[in-house]
Amino acid sequence: MNVKSTKSGNAVVISVEGRMDAASTPEFERACAEWIQQGEKKLVIDLAGLQFISSAGLRGVLTAGKKLKDGGGGLSLCGLSGVVKQVFEISGFATLFPVFDSREAALKAT
User: Fold this and answer.
1) Cβ(45)–Cβ(80) under 8 Å?
2) pTM of the prediction?
């Protein structure tokens, strides 16, 4: 899995590529936690390059979202497609967070 993060306006975009499973989710969680510890309140998680997500990956997204919410912030998702989109829809996670078709739409809404 590859995780990249960049500050864009009043949000941080965290792009995730590859597979998010039990072995790789801690890397995603560290990236989110670092930005939250720096005082960031809004994260946009770009999953356009993600091909697979396990229950551990879903837990990582939920953990980041909870930390942000507890601090008065929020998490948005974008770029969901294919199997990853199905997992988010079936698990109900697509209703827990705002979901946008593109990174641009997610950033515009923050």
Assistant:
1) no
2) 0.95
